[in-house]
Specification:
- By secondary structure, the protein is an alpha+beta fold.
- It has seven helices and 17 strands.
- The strands form three sheets. Strands 1-2-12-3-13-16-14-15 form an eight-stranded mixed beta sheet, with helices on both faces. The chain has a six-stranded antiparallel beta sheet with strand order 5-4-9-6-7-8, with no helix packed on it. Strands 10-11-17 form a three-stranded antiparallel beta sheet.
- A hairpin with a 5-residue loop joins strand 4 and strand 5.
- Bound molecules: cobalt (II) ion and zinc ion.
- Zinc ion (ZN) binds at residues 64, 165-166, 195, 218-219.
Amino acid sequence: MDLKLLEKLTQTFGPSGYEGEIRAAIREEVASLGDELYVDRLGSLVVHRRSAAPQAKKLLLAAHMDEIGLMVTHIEEKGFLRFTNIGGLYPLHHIGGRVRFANGLIGTIYVERREDRSQAPQLKHLYIDVGAKSREDCPVAVGDPGVFVGSLVQQNGRLISKTMDDRIGCYVLIEMLRQIQAPAYDLYVVFSTQEEVTLAGARTSTYRIAPDIAISVDVTLTGDTPKALPMAVELGKGPAVKVKDSGMIAHPTVRQMLIDAAQQADVPYQLEVLQGGTTDAMAMQLVREGIPSGCLSIPSRFVHSPSEMVDEADVENAIKLLVATVETN
Ligand code: CO
Ligand code: ZN
């Protein structure tokens, strides 16, 4: 594991719509790894790696670089901030946690005292304290976006951090670009914007590239924690080849392509049927006249919390699987 790279990826600011810093960080890493590099009109970063094979098909691989976060909607007289969600937020995951704004300012997220606690708190019951003493004194403005705080920890073969969703996918694609020698495909690696809100970056970048095949690389849930929704995916049992999620059915040929690559690379894999959630592949398959699309998932616990957990071997095996996918026709 290149922990320094993963630390940089997970800790760099980049909520949906505000991907400038994370894009610059990824750009530094991939600058020398492609034949062509560009940023498209909605901010996705694209690395194009040509194939020596004549008439090679175009393969697009995408990981989203945006992250969930929040946005300030209102500042109260005493300086407390109210906020709305950027992407999927669960109030229970954030009470007592911290938010970081673009300028580095930290706030504590907490919940109002509620008379009736039989129901889970909603976002409207939460507020942020940045230490301001009044509205005038508050160094944050309405419309400012923030991200959650959670450092990277490596322990017992697991990795814990904020924003594994989907910086672990960005990590896998950067490592893959470092390792591939002779791509059998005309390869486009996309670090997409706004996945957590509208899938906008994936949709528009795919239109310009017009690939023959598109694959997203993202996290998926697992069924291996106490009273989890039953699901066949477990941490440490290999990357998961998506069969279906709530936004798409993976194209059978793309699904098979990933399974064949797993067998060729001799890495374990799991089949994924995800009942809640989707990825960039949902948007990519609907571009132009339709793009056969699929997804390779990194199993993750505690998704959309500040402490998302993945297994190191699953990450390494996802890289091997994708290298085999790209190098084999
Ligand atoms: Co997500
Ligand atoms: Zn994601």
